[in-house]
Amino acid sequence: MLSHVRQRIAQPFMGGMESHSWYLAEGLQARGHDVVLFASGDSDPRFAIDPVLPQHYERVFPWAEHRGSAPLIAHVDQGYIAACERIAAGGFDVVHNNSLSRFPIEPQRTAIVPTVTSLHVPPYDALHWFVKASPSPTHRLTVTSQSQLRAWWPDGAPAEASVLHNGIDPAAWRFSPAGDGSAVWSGRMTPNKGPHLAVQAARRAGVAITLYGQIEDPDYWAAEVAPHLGPDVRYGGHLDGTALASALGQASVFLFTPCWDEPFGLVAAEAMACGLPVAAFDMGAAREVVGEAGCLAAPGDVAGLAAAIPAAMAIPRDVPRARVERLFTRDRWVDRCEALYAEVCAAKAEMVA
């Protein structure tokens, strides 16, 4: 598995990409696969780590200061080039690529080691052309939602691309049969995740709210969120999965406020597994993830989101839990990954036969 190296692959997770790599590696190991995790060297030592970089690059190049800088790009590129060379020489059966780097998807590399690439973001210029040129019999691409598939391939996706919904372990996100009447929000504290809008909507609805997650953008937090903290707006910290599941289960509704084309929305699925209906902005994959387990408002419509809160609270808590168990379990997710691995390995076998 080749991971993104902005953050370490360890709990508590910064975001969905780190969670994706960690839970997939754990799930594959539990099924008896021999997994080597190519990630930052400070990732979870329970896995066999081959370091792409000695430390996650946020520690060396803080994101807010070095976003898009030439030294950062060179630092990351050098790590991935070397990692790809080690993978090519390492005798691996298959690579699951979560890196968002252009190097692992070059056709000369995927012809050597069969590859499944998971795209976790909407299309962007630095990767778009490379993705479009990369499908082959030994390279499959997945996205996390139908809306993301249309974004990457508006004229129709190639046969090698498909939707692979993220999955969670329902046992790790225990169902709680009742909430305390409050709202909850979790995620990275950045403008495109919209916690400030969740606070505004909760206040309009007269509902207390607790926010959980890493404060990724301190300036945004200080200007837009921190001034509202008080008895009815609380910050609960950045928690690991077990503690977060316990905290989520105490609330009565989850607010999901993407302000960008969110490719999936793992935080919503986690809350749904705990029994929380969702009040959300209808942006990105929110409608696809939430379905009958919540109520949607127009993107950025705080008044509409406030109105969706009591409507969502009226949804029985077994509805969101059942939706997760039907569509978004880790077993279902890993089953599909194994099927994709088998496809690219069979294609490689045919090429050398």
TrEMBL record:
UniProt keyword list: Transferase
Entry superkingdom: Bacteria
InterPro entries per record: Glyco_trans_4-like_N
GO MF term list: glycosyltransferase activity
Glycosyltransferase subfamily 4-like N-terminal domain boundaries: 14-171
PANTHER family in the cross-refs: BLL5217 PROTEIN (PTHR12526:SF595), GLYCOSYLTRANSFERASE (PTHR12526)
Protein name: Glycosyltransferase involved in cell wall biosynthesis
UniProt lineage: Bacteria, Pseudomonadati, Pseudomonadota, Alphaproteobacteria, Sphingomonadales
